Amino acid sequence: MRQVFFKLANVSRHFRPASLRAKQTGSGLEQYNQEIGRVKQEAAFNAVPQTRNPDAVGVLSEWFEQESLGTPAFEVSGDALAGIGTPESTQEIIDWAQDAPDEGARNLESWLSDVDDGKVKEALIDTLGNIKSFESTQVSAVVHKHTKLPDANDQTAFSTSSMLSSEVKAP
User: Fold this and answer.
1) Of 7, 29, 64, 83, whose CB has the highest number of CB atoms within 10 Å?
2) Cα distance between residue 56 and residue 146, in whole Å
3) Which residue has the higher pLDDT, 125 or 14?
4) pLDDT (tens digit, 9 = 90+) per residue, 125-160?
5) CA distance 76 to 60
6) What are the b/e assignments for 94-115, b being 16+ CB within 10 Å?
7) DSSP codes joined into one string, 86-141
8) pTM of the predicted model, to two decimals?
């Protein structure tokens, strides 16, 4: 992934718009540097979600955990983790979802919609068996919609163990 960023930086150095080259002198230099930084960042943010390499989960998880909901780094990290679609990358998303605010439900809906691997869904369902609830009822509803499990925050939902213990045994 570092190679992608370095290549993007090299490309931007050689293909500068004429308006930016003109600003390289005097007070326009700072503005020029800011614009170059913005272009590089935009290119990187557009490239990161295309990453499908499971080895990138560690780096993406760090960005995902450190950035705030709504920031570009958070958004592209979540998009990339969902795009990788492994149990490990999906687990990172679910770990975040446990404490996510209501505003995170939109992101989570998009990310879980991207996860289409049956094995990943099975791992997600297994993981949810160990989670008691989510901070946000909206986030919880999204997770349970995608796993087809009863909502963990729903007080009327029955657990498997409670259903088994209430079964009537034949005489």
Assistant:
1) 64
2) 24
3) 125
4) 776 766 667 889 999 888 888 877 555 444 434 333
5) 9
6) bebbbebeeebbebbbebbebb
7) -HHHHHHHHHHHHT--GGGHHHHHHHHHH---HHHHHHHHHHHTT----S-HHHHH
8) 0.61
